[in-house]
Amino acid sequence: MALFSRRRAAEPDEPGTTDPEPAAPEPAQEHGPWDVADVPELGQRLDLGALRVPARPGLKVRMELEKRTRQVVAASVSISGSALQVQAFAAPRSGGLWEELRPEIVASVTKQGGTADEVDGPFGREILARLPVTTQDGRMGHRPARFIGVDGPRWFLRGVLSGKAAIDPDAAKELEDLFADVVVVRGQEARPPRDVLALQMPGKAGPAEAQEAEGSSLDPLTRGPEITEIR
To answer: Full-prediction pTM beyond 0.90?
Structure first.
């Protein structure tokens, strides 16, 4: 004999029953990053190819090139003593790339002698990292950074906050708002997951500097504004 029996669903016209309530509509997305299909008007954004970055007063942009291929693979924006590096990747239709990458980032930082902890942030789970650095006077210190990520439709956007924004929530707000307003232009071509979406130097949208990076992995903690904690 079965331990559990399946209860017969009541018919709508049976006594004492009511029609099921219609499902509530899903709430509209409150903030981005956005897919280009969801943004009818791009407005005042810098055209960086796969990314459209909001223009802000006083914002400085530096494009980062992979040394071997000369391909622009990341953009760093800085303002008020803080920096945000943004980099877009192809992702599987099922999403979940950020779930896979977080343990890898934690392991990489730990292997280098730093510390990394997963915490909740404004974009979901994020990583607070402290990477060891050697100061100008030869002492050992740590450079803080926040790794944030958002899974989109067939793309993943990673951001790395450094400088004051890595440790001060008030200082981070401006760059967090900028990250939340980035538009990703994935394109329709087939790409393997984790493939970097190529960027380009902004044209009429505004000036930018270009800087070579040692590889496509782009260690974001070796450049940009710093706040070093001395041990």
So the answer is: no
